[in-house]
């Protein structure tokens, strides 16, 4: 039995002991609201198509989602369902209040116990690339990956409309105008997260999809009866639907009707798994559920940046947030070449991508720092090794680190430098980088908080909240790393 992972790229933390309780890391309904039953025909249709029960303990419904915003109305979208409420002009917007919207969800229709199988969706009910016509699939082989092929299949089913065998499912999917994946953000909206690496990731992702489109378009144009006029915006929409809803299983990239109505809870231990012997996708309950309670799973251990990029939502408190620390390596450094040579000589397989000859900038992912003596769990050892090497000031220092690596496990600069002042010097350089990033993130968050500022006027309210979640989460990670590094420098200086 293999775990099915959501297609969104993983950016693979608990709070320190004694920390105050955090807000829920999921999209939960408000406690006072009653789930609304919706679309009672969907599950019977899917049962008929699959020739299987699918689930006897879950039903489709909608759950309220509330958020306090400086807006009297909001267009809201999760990866699963969207509701449109028209926005008033800025001068008519009211003071902040709690807005409640409804998102498609799954609820317990019967009592569920931990360990129960809550749903089983057989392979014949999945949308997978091998359901493409053979001629189309043959032309796409070698030019398109699994995700793109599944997006092409979705394009074909969308073109068929009511004649599609998947019409009830396809018609339930949100339009591009009701999605908030970052590939749909306007340039001014992306500008507000320019201090986060996700801004560049979004641009790269969008360009990648455009290249994919240019590669598959000639093949699709040979089947006008299946695809009609091929437009970039339609391809981007289908690709976004797949990235936000599909799972990677042993059967390939799969859209799984009904299963993709499950919302995300970062604290859940329930995931979708694919049972190869039974040839079904299934979800096992990680706890007990009472009748009427919303059932949720974890899509993956994703940061807010990844959730925003691929799924179109964020969490107000995400335990999997991380930040990328970028470090410049000036080529004018007289020791630059020697540092590169030594680093390359002692690199490990995990660090091959970190730095190569000719590079002048590299990045390291850090997570919220947990304190464990002087180790600072969350600050990668390879980052600490990097600053020791690339902020060395003499050939003697470099040779000393190389000799120590050769005498031990071969890893370079993984131990504190013998000279305390050099160790402090290296980590203070790291502090400087982190401090600069903190200032950028803090300023960006402050701009987003200004009610009548540029960001409030130019950003979609929901995307504005997403931007704040991304930046605030990364800022918290950076602050934890800064606090640890400052404490470490002080401790070493006093020893």
How would the blueprint of this fold be written?
Elements: E1 2-3, E2 5-6, E3 36-37, H1 42-50, E4 58-69, E5 76-77, E6 82-83, E7 97-108, E8 117-122, E9 127-128, H2 134-140, H3 146-160, H4 167-170, H5 187-191, H6 197-220, H7 224-227, H8 232-245, E10 247-249, E11 252-255, E12 263-264, E13 272-275, E14 280-284, E15 296-297, H9 304-311, E16 322-328, H10 336-345, E17 361-367, H11 381-390, H12 395-407, H13 420-449, H14 454-458, H15 461-494
Parallel strand pairs: 12-15
Antiparallel strand pairs: 1-13, 2-10, 3-4, 4-7, 5-6, 8-14, 9-11, 10-11, 13-14, 16-17
Helix pairs in contact: 3-8, 6-8, 11-13, 13-15
Describe, in plain words, how this protein is organized in 3D:
This protein is an alpha+beta fold. It contains 15 helices and 17 strands. The protein has helices spanning 42-50, 134-140, 146-160, 167-170, 187-191, 197-220, 224-227, 232-245, 304-311, 336-345, 381-390, 395-407, 420-449, 454-458, 461-494, and strands at 2-3, 5-6, 36-37, 58-69, 76-77, 82-83, 97-108, 117-122, 127-128, 247-249, 252-255, 263-264, 272-275, 280-284, 296-297, 322-328, 361-367. The strands form six sheets. The protein has a four-stranded antiparallel beta sheet, with no helix packed on it. A four-stranded antiparallel beta sheet has the order 2-10-11-9. A hairpin with a 4-residue loop joins strand 5 (76-77) and strand 6 (82-83). The longest helix has 34 residues, at 461-494. It is elongated and about 75 Å long. Mean pLDDT is 82; it is low at 9-38 and 66-99.
């Amino acid at each position: 039995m293999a775990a099915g992972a959501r297609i969104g790229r993983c950016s693979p933390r608990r709070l320190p002991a004694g920390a105050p309780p955090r807000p829920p890391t999921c999209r939960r309904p408000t406690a006072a609201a009653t789930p609304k039953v919706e679309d009672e025909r969907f599950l019977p249709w899917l049962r008929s198509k699959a020739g299987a029960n699918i689930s006897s303990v879950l039903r489709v419904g909608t759950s309220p989602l509330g958020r306090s915003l400086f807006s009297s109305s909001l267009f809201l979208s999760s990866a699963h369902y969207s509701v449109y409420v028209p926005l008033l002009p800025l001068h008519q917007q009211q003071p902040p209040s709690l807005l409640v919207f409804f998102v498609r969800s799954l609820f317990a229709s019967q009592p569920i116990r931990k360990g129960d199988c809550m749903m089983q969706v057989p392979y014949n009910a999945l949308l997978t690339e091998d359901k493409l016509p053979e001629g189309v699939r043959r032309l796409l082989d070698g030019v398109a990956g699994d995700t793109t092929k599944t997006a092409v299949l979705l394009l074909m089913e969308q073109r068929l409309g009511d004649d599609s065998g998947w019409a009830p499912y396809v018609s339930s999917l949100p339009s591009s105008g009701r999605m908030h994946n970052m590939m749909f953000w306007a340039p001014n909206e992306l500008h507000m997260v320019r201090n986060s690496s996700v801004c560049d990731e979004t641009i790269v992702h969008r360009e990648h999809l455009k290249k994919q489109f240019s590669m598959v378009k000639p093949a699709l144009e040979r089947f006008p009866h299946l695809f009609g006029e091929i437009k970039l915006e339609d391809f981007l929409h289908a690709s976004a639907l797949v990235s936000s809803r599909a799972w990677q299983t042993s059967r390939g990239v799969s859209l799984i009707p009904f299963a993709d109505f499950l919302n995300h809870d970062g604290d859940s231990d329930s995931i979708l798994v694919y049972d190869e012997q039974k040839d079904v996708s299934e979800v096992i309950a990680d706890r007990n559920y009472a009748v009427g309670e919303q059932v949720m799973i974890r899509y993956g251990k994703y940061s807010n940046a990844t959730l925003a990029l691929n799924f179109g939502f964020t969490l107000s408190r995400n335990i999997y947030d991380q930040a990328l620390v970028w470090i410049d390596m000036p080529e004018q450094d007289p020791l630059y070449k020697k540092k590169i040579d030594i680093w390359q000589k002692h690199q490990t397989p995990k660090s091959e991508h970190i730095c190569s000859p000719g590079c002048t900038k590299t990045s390291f992912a850090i997570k919220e720092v947990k304190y464990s003596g002087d180790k600072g769990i969350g600050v990668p050892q390879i980052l600490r090794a990097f600053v020791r090497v690339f902020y060395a000031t003499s050939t003697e220092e470099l040779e000393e680190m190389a000799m120590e690596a050769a005498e031990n496990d071969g890893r370079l600069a993984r131990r504190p430098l013998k000279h305390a002042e050099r160790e402090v010097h290296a980590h203070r350089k790291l502090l400087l980088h982190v401090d600069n990033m903190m200032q950028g993130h803090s300023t960006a968050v402050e701009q987003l908080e200004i009610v009548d500022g540029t960001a409030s006027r130019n950003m979609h309210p929901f995307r504005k909240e997403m931007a704040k979640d991304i930046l605030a989460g990364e800022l918290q990670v950076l602050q934890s790393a800064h606090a640890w590094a400052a404490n470490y420098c002080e401790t070493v200086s006093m020893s």
